[in-house]
Design brief:
two-stranded antiparallel ribbon; alpha/beta; binds S-adenosylmethionine; globular; Rossmann fold; about 45% helix
């Protein structure tokens, strides 16, 4: 007997699940929710009541940053148990998504190959090289990262990611996994009411979750999206066609794209930057400057930066850097947008950074109000920074 994932918004590319497969995925989601809501908060209690006082007794001062906190917490049994269980939940999550995808991969590939109707396009480029920052590790423990292909015209990485993200965020980024895009576009419309973009580009679109809200917000605009991994753009294109949203997807490295200078009015990215590198970040910012038309806007979103954050919160949000194969996570949370503006040719005085409320938050009364490792849907706020040309 088959059932579809009734909480996540179904479309032609969302893998179907048997009852057992669905139960397994639901278990992973509940397990993650339990760890986030019931176990993680006690890490702070342990820190405040035992670990920090012991550190102060030994050193005559409190820990001075998130790294010192990590080193002492790494020896604490409660923290070690939570951390180990969270890592286990991550590995269980990917396996629970891979099994149904493997079972129906041929059908998913066929559906993707015939996807049409919305008016979007798909352009692949087999000459695009995968950057080392995506191949050196299985990023966020996703087996094969975004790029691995086991079949011709493979879409497995996209299908696994689509369902995996829903479980990872514990449903907190909405039935279409589109909260980051929806929140960002809501902010842009609020802060730049006169912006009427004709051409919009989304960088590192993955399954296209965050891209679609731009078509809804700017129905007259042409929407383009790039991702360096072929299985992701194949999947994203088929998903968008199934949802009736016309988007032009292409396989490109956002560090060096084939679009003409000045060809976009709005360039966006959502949780792309933390998966790149210092050099790639600089290259991507320069590409944004090159591709924007005069007065065009570039906006990027991530989880909150560590500056102005309590050291303990920064330590716990930093969990992914050390335990979830996210090597650039820590450094990306220390990016200074004004410095990036100067390096890439933007006017630092036309740079902004803000915390934008989640568009989906209102419907999610049960959300936690803290960001924590393995919980990017938890805070109810996204960190946005951007540049106007
Ligand atoms: C976390 S996912 C992005 C999620 C997506 N933006 C969303 O909001 O649903 C990161 C994606 O960025 C892609 N990526 C990483 N580096 C890239 C680069 N240099 N150029 C293009 N895509 C890149 C990866 O292949 C992956 O699909």
């Amino acid at each position: 007997m088959k059932t579809s994932a009734h909480e996540q918004f179904a479309h032609a590319m969302l893998p179907e699940t048997t009852v057992d497969e669905f139960s397994r995925q639901e278990f992973v989601k509940s397990f993650k929710l339990h760890l986030a809501n019931k176990v993680s908060p006690n890490n702070r209690v342990v820190y405040e009541r035992q670990v920090r006082p012991a550190f102060e007794k030994e050193h005559g001062r409190p820990p001075k940053n998130r790294h010192e906190i990590r080193k002492v917490m790494n020896r604490d049994d409660h923290y070690k148990t939570w951390s180990s269980l969270l890592r286990t939940s991550q590995e269980m999550m990917w396996t629970s998504c891979q099994v149904p995808v493997a079972r129906q991969l041929d059908a998913l590939i066929d559906t993707a190959k015939t996807a049409n109707g919305a008016g979007g396009t798909l352009t692949l480029n087999p000459d695009v090289a995968m950057p080392r920052y995506l191949t050196a590790v299985d990023i966020h423990c996703q087996p094969g990262s975004y790029h691995a292909e086991v079949a011709k015209d493979d879409v497995a990485a996209g299908a696994v990611y689509d369902r995996g993200v829903y479980l990872y965020a514990m449903g907190r980024i909405g039935p279409a996994n589109d909260d980051i895009g929806a929140s960002q576009v809501a902010y842009i419309q609020h802060a730049y009411p006169d912006l009427a973009p004709k051409r919009i580009l989304d960088l590192g679109c993955a399954a296209g979750h965050s891209t679609a809200p731009y078509k809804q917000a700017y129905p007259d605009a042409e929407i383009f999206a790039v991702d360096v991994a072929a299985p992701m753009v194949r999947y994203a294109h088929a998903r968008a066609e199934s949802l009736g949203v016309p988007i032009h997807f292409s396989q490109q490295n956002a560090e060096s794209m084939d679009f003409e200078d000045g060809s976009f009015d709005l360039i966006v990215s959502h949780i792309l930057i933390h998966e790149t590198s210092t050099t790639a970040f600089r290259n991507i910012m320069k590409e944004c400057h090159r591709l924007l038309a005069p007065a065009g806007l570039a906006v990027h979103s991530e989880t909150p930066p560590y500056k102005n954050m309590d050291d303990y919160d920064a330590f716990i949000l930093d969990w992914d850097a050390y335990n979830n194969n996210e090597p650039f996570w820590g450094k990306s949370h220390e990016i200074e947008p004004r410095e990036a503006a100067v390096e890439s040719g933007f006017d630092p005085d036309k740079t902004f950074e803000t915390m934008a409320p989640s568009a989906f938050e209102a419907a999610q009364a049960k959300r936690s109000n803290v960001f924590q490792g393995g919980d990017f849907g938890g805070g109810g706020l996204w960190y946005l920074y951007g540049f106007q040309k």
